[in-house]
Amino acid sequence: MNLQESGEMYLETILRLSQKMDKVRSIDIADEMGYSKPSISRAMRILKENGFVSIDSLGAVTLTEKGRASAEKTYERHQVLTSLFIGLGVNETVAADDACKIEHVISDETFEAMKKHIVQMKGVNSEE
Question: What pTM did the predictor assign?
Answer without folding.
Answer: 0.84
